[in-house]
Amino acid sequence: MNSIKDLLMGFCLGAANIIPGVSGGTFLLIFNIYERVFGIINCIRRPLILQAADIAGQWVRHVGRNGTTRAVQTFCRQNDVAFLARLILGAVIAIFALSTLIKHLLTHRFSLTYAFFFGLILVSVLIPVRLLTRFRWHLAGFACLGAVLTVMVYVQVNPYDRMKHKSDFYQAVYERHVTESAGRIGDAAAPFVLPGAGAEYLYAALCGAVSISAMVLPGISGSLVLILMGAYYDVLSAISALPRFQLDAVFYLGCFSLGILAGGLLFARVINFVLRQYYDATMAFLTGLMLGSLWALWPFKQVAVLATRYVRENSTVIPLENVAVYTNVNVLPALDAQLGWAVVLFLAGCGIMYGFVRVQARNP
Q1: 240 to 89, 237, 314: CA distances (angstroms)
Q2: Which residues of 115-129 are buried (b: 16+ CB within 10 A; e: fewer)?
Q3: pLDDT of residue 326
């Protein structure tokens, strides 16, 4: 039963980290395992890694011997390895199960999806506020700093510019391929294994490192950080492309995962120190960051049209005509049926997150 419970908790953590507004750190508090997980992460240091490598080496050299098997079991039990592995497995299952759905919703129901996310974030602001030990006026300055920095980051990352830059890169590869392939000039697609841009993979690693630092904090969502960094849709696309064994998706997620690993080991210690030394200031800063992110999650954006967009698809590049792109410019909604549904989904997001907040309040 404990194994199934751990898998279900991991599934909830994975779902929380892929949906903007729902914090993985909040679920750690709800399940009352926040300190347990942090304790495991903080124990991952060089001596422990060397010990694990030594035990694993002995087990490989002497497979089947009771002594080596007992040593592996003892090590796993002492360091809670099985518990952490079950959490990670459950989270991975959730991420793969939900990524394609959310990508579809963002592609075809952008405003309605963002309305739901907006409701989640708006109410989740209560979490870091309630975690304050006491309110002092100077904390408002940290909240304002978080809000201003968030808006500044979002304004600098225009989805249209990022999409145009990526499309230009793929166009150059596409045109070079059809030029070098005699007789293929008129083809609809140019098949080849895409040589990914190194800068894109490095940025994926950076996004992974920064997002994992947010995932472990109560109240802030790692997916929200990816939205602010302009990488959320790219990560979802890469995850949903894995079943088709796209090489570039594997490279992209590999770099993203390396960033998560490095960031998790580094930022877990930094966050632990900051929370011990500047707890209320950190919570106030997180509150401002989440309030500022409401600007990024406003459901109604100015739409720009990209006349021809070159995209990856099954290790090929194909041109798409007249692609609508949601920019980072907020606009007022039209008075139509979509606005009504957006309000309904906004209220649904508020209601769901309020339920999580109530549960978290009963598990301090």
Answers
A1: 17, 5, 12
A2: bbbbbbbbbbbbbbe
A3: 84
